[in-house]
Design brief:
The structure is a single chain. The protein is α/β, with parallel strands linked by helices. The protein has helices at about 15-25, 40-45, 50-70, 80-105, 150, 160, 180-190, 210-220, 270-275, 310-325, 355-360, 375-380, 410-420, 425-430; strands at about 5-10, 30-35, 110, 115-120, 120-125, 130-140, 140-145, 170-175, 195-200, 225-230, 230-240, 240-245, 250-255, 255-260, 265, 300, 340, 345-350, 365-370, 385-390, 400-405, 450. The protein contains 14 helices and 22 strands. Strands 1, 2, 3, 4, 5, 6 and 16 form a 7-stranded mixed sheet that branches. Strands 17-18-21-20-19-22 form a 6-stranded antiparallel sheet, sandwiched between helices. Strand 4 and strand 5 form a beta hairpin. The longest helix is centred in the N-terminal third of the chain and has 25 residues, at about 80-105. The protein is globular, with a radius of gyration of 24 Å. The structure holds NADPH dihydro-nicotinamide-adenine-dinucleotide phosphate. NADPH dihydro-nicotinamide-adenine-dinucleotide phosphate (NDP) binds near residues 182 and 340. NADPH dihydro-nicotinamide-adenine-dinucleotide phosphate binds near residues 180, 198 and 260.
Length: about 450
C-alpha cells in the first residue's frame, strides 16, 4: 500500500521535532508534522526556556545587593515586568521561528492544526483531511493537572505565569515539586510576597533527603513563606484575589494562586485507544524500550509516555526512534543515570541514586560537605553550598552526586560524565582540584560522613 508519508508526527515539541528532523533530514524519509499550538512545545514555549529566562531576571535583585557589598554604587529600582515581558515574548517568537526553520530545512511538511489518529496508518487533521503514513509518532507531551476545586476558583498554572499582564503583590503556590519550588524562588526574587503550601513532609519528594532539607531551609531564608504538611481546604475567588482556608485553619487572601500539582499526558481525544494503543493509569501511552506502542506502526516519545519527563530525554527518545526506523541503526534511548537540575535559588543538580535509595540496595559510604561559598560569604550572605557523593562501599563506584549551589546545573552536567563512565571515588580523588572554585570540594572529600 502506498502511503502519503513515511512518518506523521503529532506534536511539535522537543521529541517530535527531533524525530521529524532526523527522519527527514538525515535519513531521507518523507515526513509531516502537525502542531495545534506554537512550534517548540512545552520546553520552548511554556517550560524550560521561558522559566530559565525568568530565573535570570529574578536573580539580579540578589546580585545587586552583592554588588553593593563588593563596593559598587548601585541602587535597584523596581522590577519592570512589562519591559521584561516584551523582550521575553520576542525571544520566544525567535525560538519558535528557529524550530520552524529547522523543520523546513529538513523538508518536513508542517500542518498548523490538531491531528488525531483514525487508524494504525491514518491521521485526521482538524481541517477534516485524512493523511496516511507508514509510521505515526505521538509526541503530544503533557499539561498541568489541577484539582477541580482550584480550577473552579480560577487558580493559575505554570502556563499562565508566562502570560501575566502584571506581577501580583502576593501569590500562593500549591505543590512541592520541580515547578512549585522553581516558581516560588523566581517570584520571590522578583519581589512578590510568596507563600508555598506542600502537603507532604518535605518538598521535592524523590530527591536526596539531605538536599531537600537544605533547599527548603535556603528558600525560607531567602523569603519564601514555606508551609510543610499544609494543603488548601477551601478556596474561592473574592475581591482582590482568592480567599484560601488551609488545612491548618489559616485563612488569607492572595492576589494569585498557582497550582503546580503535577502534569498529565496529553492523550485525551487523540483516538489512540480505539486504534488499539494501550494507555496507562494516568493516560500515558504505554511503550516498550523502542518507544513502540501496542500497535506496531504507532510509536510515542516524550512526556506523553511519562517515563522521565525531561526535554533532553524526549530528544534522545525521538532521535533513537528515527535512527531505528529510518536509519537502519537500531537504538534504544538510555534512561540510566540521567542528570537533571532544579532551578531553585540556589540551584540543585543531581544525578544517580539518592542516599535513601542506595542504602536500601547495598552498603554505601556517604561523603558530604556544606560550606559558605567565598563570593556570597564576602557579601555577608548566609547561603551554604551542599555537595554529596554516594559511593558503593564494595566497588567504590560513585552511585550518586547531589549539589545545591549557584551553578549546580552546570556542575552536575560534568560530574555526570564521570559517573556515567563508572568513575570510582578514587578517580575523583586522583583529579587535581581547580582552585579556587566551589566544585573543587567534589575532589577533596576525604572521609565518609556516614556509612550505611
Ligand atoms: P511533580 O509531580 O514533580 O510535583 C507535583 C507536586 O504537587 C508534588 O509536590 C505533589 O505532592 C503535589 N500534589 C499533587 N497533587 C496534589 C493535590 N491534589 N493537592 C496538593 N498537592 C498536590 O510535578 P511538577 O508539576 O512540579 O513537574 C512535572 C514534571 O515536569 C517533573 O516531574 C519534571 O519531570 C518536569 N520538570 C522538570 C524541570 C527541570 O528539569 N528543571 C522543571 C519543571 C518540570 P506529593 O509529593 O505529595 O505527591
Amino acid at each position: 500500500m502506498a502511503f502519503d508519508y513515511d512518518l506523521f508526527v503529532i506534536g511539535g515539541g522537543s521529541g517530535g521535532v527531533r524525530a521529524a528532523r532526523i527522519a527527514a533530514g538525515e535519513h531521507g524519509a518523507k515526513v509531516a508534522l502537525a502542531e495545534e499550538y506554537r512550534m517548540g512545545g512545552t520546553c520552548v514555549i511554556r517550560g524550560c526556556v521561558p522559566k530559565k529566562l525568568m530565573v535570570f531576571a529574578s536573580s539580579y535583585r540578589g546580585a545587586m545587593a552583592d554588588a553593593r557589598a563588593y563596593g559598587w554604587d548601585v541602587t535597584a529600582g523596581g522590577f519592570d515586568w512589562t519591559a521584561f515581558r516584551a523582550k521575553f515574548d520576542a525571544e520566544l517568537d525567535r525560538l519558535e521561528h528557529a524550530y520552524r526553520a529547522g523543520l523546513d530545512g529538513a523538508g518536513v511538511t508542517v500542518h498548523d492544526c490538531r491531528a488525531v489518529v483514525d487508524d494504525a496508518h491514518t491521521v485526521r487533521l482538524a481541517t477534516g483531511e485524512a493523511v496516511t503514513a507508514k509510521h505515526i509518532l505521538v509526541a503530544t507531551g503533557g499539561r498541568p493537572s489541577v484539582p477541580d476545586m482550584a480550577a473552579r476558583a480560577g487558580a493559575m498554572t505554570s502556563n499562565d505565569i508566562f502570560k501575566m499582564e502584571s506581577l501580583p503583590k502576593s501569590v500562593l503556590i500549591v505543590g512541592g515539586g520541580f515547578i512549585a519550588c522553581e516558581f516560588a524562588c523566581i517570584l520571590n526574587g522578583m519581589g512578590v510576597e510568596v507563600t508555598q503550601y506542600y502537603r507532604g513532609e518535605q518538598i521535592l519528594r524523590g530527591f536526596d533527603g539531605e538536599a531537600r532539607g537544605h533547599i527548603a531551609e535556603l528558600m525560607r531564608e531567602s523569603g519564601v513563606n514555606l508551609h510543610l504538611g499544609t494543603d488548601v481546604l477551601e478556596m474561592k475567588a473574592t475581591d482582590g484575589g482568592t480567599w484560601v482556608k488551609s488545612t491548618d485553619g489559616r485563612e488569607a487572601v492572595y492576589e494569585k494562586v498557582v497550582y503546580a500539582t503535577g502534569r498529565v499526558p496529553n492523550t485525551e481525544g487523540l483516538g489512540l485507544e480505539a486504534t488499539g494503543v494501550k494507555l496507562g493509569r494516568k493516560g500515558e501511552v504505554v511503550v516498550d524500550e523502542w518507544s513502540q506502542t501496542a500497535v506496531p506502526s504507532i510509536f510515542a516519545v516524550g512526556d506523553v509516555t511519562d517515563r522521565i519527563n525531561l526535554t533532553p530525554v524526549a530528544i534522545r527518545e525521538g532521535h533513537a526512534f528515527a535512527d531505528t526506523i529510518f536509519g537502519a541503526k537500531p537504538t534504544k534511548a538510555d534512561h540510566e543515570l540521567v542528570a537533571s537540575a532544579v532551578f531553585t535559588q540556589p540551584e540543585f543538580g543531581t544525578v544517580g541514586m539518592t542516599e535513601e535509595a542506595a542504602r536500601d540496595a547495598r552498603p554505601i559510604d556517604v561523603y558530604a560537605t556544606s560550606f559558605r561559598p567565598m563570593q556570597s560569604a564576602f557579601a555577608g550572605r548566609a547561603d551554604r553550598v551542599m555537595m554529596k557523593l554516594i559511593v558503593c562501599a564494595e566497588t567504590r563506584k560513585v552511585l550518586g552526586c547531589h549539589i545545591v549551589a549557584p551553578g549546580a546545573g552546570e556542575m552536575i552536567q560534568l560530574a555526570a560524565i564521570a559517573i556515567k563512565m563508572g568513575a570510582t571515588k578514587e578517580d575523583f580523588d586522583r583529579t587535581v582540584a581547580v582552585h579556587p572554585v566551589m566544585a573543587e570540594e567534589l575532589v577533596t572529600l576525604r572521609k565518609p560522613v556516614r556509612t550505611a
